[in-house]
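TOKENISE THE FOLD
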Amino acid sequence: MHPTLSHLLPCLAALALPLAAQTTVNVPCAADNTLYDSATGALSNGAGIGMFVGLTGTGGIRRAVVRFNVAATVPANAKVLSATISLNVAQSTVALPMTITGHRLLTAWGEGTSVAPGNGGGGGASTANDATWIHGFWPALNWTTPGGDFNSTPSMLLSMPPFGPFSSLPSADATADVQNWLNNPATNFGWLLKSDELLASTAHRLDTKESTGLKPTLVVTYLLPGQSGTYGTGCPVGTGTFQTAWVGTPTGGNTMAITKTNAPPLSIGADFFALTLDPLGTPLLPGCTLYLPLALIIPGGAFLTDPAGSGGSSFVVPTGFPGYLIHTQTAVLEANPLGFSIGNAASICLQ
């Protein structure tokens, strides 16, 4: 038996929206290096084909630093919806995946011409402008704190395999970092990648931009003012998925349609809105994910679906907020364990 709409609304007020970007671009790595645990800062690998994360067999710490020139690839007026990094493990002695974290760096650093011998794990002699354990730029400009100046709160989590490609999980913090770097390129110092640094013999060698393997890449999705897009996938309904989309131009004062297709048929639903997006989302059921921050959802109006599972509603675009993002996700009553199904997220960037 379906719950009543009055029962559904409090649940949906805890819902969020997913959204698929209008444009996705791959931003190449602009700089990468390894911080080798060294009291003198004598070791680096600025031009090497590998960067290292984890601990050596003797407990030596290895941290990687990476930077991507966001402003060179993403339009200046873009609004970033999600940002993830893709990396590749070229070598390790670890049998199981290992969690590492990415932290926003707070000061500038460099890469010189150093190349570590062998597989690179021991480091090579630092050269001018190399980042080291002690230096942002060898030999004279030091980090405030040995091991790098970075935000202690991670921007992203990554499950690093023993070998092969992997990517970070989408996160609101990484998205905010990239948006800030786009708006303020002078603050773009990239991320530091580290393990929990508890277990020896966990060091992994990752391909760098100098390698012939899979180079570090930042994957960014964004909307421009006046554009709309979708993000994520709606709940399974019948043989398809529940789809939501904006129709119209998101100019202040315009009335846009929010269309629903392949929704639960002959039912009642409601739209929900938010000004921010949770790129990872909260799974509610297999294939059903909530992408809006739960505490920030604004309930909208109700609508009916027809026998084909189609429905629609209208939205008057507010004036005076160019560049703002509005995200929506739709829920419709259905006889499933939740009592409702949700569509994918859909977003507009006001102009």
